[in-house]
Description:
Layout: H1 2-12, E1 21-25, H2 30-45, E2 49-56, H3 62-76, E3 80-84, H4 85-89, H5 95-100, H6 104-119, E4 125-127, H7 132-144, E5 149-150, E6 157-159, E7 165-167, H8 175-184, H9 201-215, H10 219-230, E8 232-233, E9 239-240, E10 247-248, H11 254-266
Parallel strand pairs: 1-2, 1-4, 2-3, 4-7, 5-8
Antiparallel strand pairs: 6-7, 9-10
Helix pairs in contact: 1-2, 2-3, 2-8, 7-9, 7-10
The structure holds zinc ion.
Zinc ion binds next to helix 11.
Amino acid sequence: MFEEKIRMFMRSQHMYKPGDKILAGISGGKDSLMLGLVMKYIVERDDVEAEFLHINFGQPGSELVEAYVKRFSKDLGIKLHVYRFKEDWGVGFPEIATVLRKNACSLCSQMLRYYLLYFGRDYDVVATAHNLDDIVSFLLYNAATGNTSYSSSLKPVLDTIIGVKKVKPFYYVPEERLADEAKKRGITPVPTGCPSEDEAPTVRIRRFLKEMEREVPGFRKNLLRTLIRIGTPTDSAPNKCERCGMPSYGRICSVCRMRDRIKKIVS
Ligand SMILES: [Zn+2]
């Protein structure tokens, strides 16, 4: 059974221990809904607690997604926290990407990472639904653009300077397997309203990976193993941001610096 397989993987990787509190990011996409089901399964069997975090970026259609995630969490009986980006920042997606002149996709994933950890600071573990295709496409894109020193995607488990552990239970699970499992369970996710879905370079890499997998079974897992070998595992950010306390490479983290710029522009 899929849930049991993931539970065994999580235990073998020491992703949680008895008494841990886990915060899982639930975007409303099928992978995150599967993560929600896995969390429920684990809570019922092990001595752990789990809660969900949904980030509403204020993009068109985000209210529908939020309502869907609320219903999903309620059905599972798991507590949900919602962070509304637009209310807090004064600007939502994709406007903020335009204002900051950044790629909407990478900005969005940066914000997801940041806020999951920010709200996860009072938990022992934060879990994300990244699957094999997410990880390989990210690593491959980085390798192809000359960046082979990266931390979080090289390992299914990463310790952070603020004490909370970041885990990826679906590290070795291909995207189509998650889609299958979601379908079997009658999960039909709402469209996330992500405007850049088809344009991101990693999306094109994912298409390529799937094509190759059909021709060469095991293509993605083998590629992942090679990328792990050639990559330089760096520690997670070594400092704490003086302002927000989140892991940072400099004195002030990049999200706090972006906030300053947005404040100037919006006010
Ligand atoms: Zn900061």
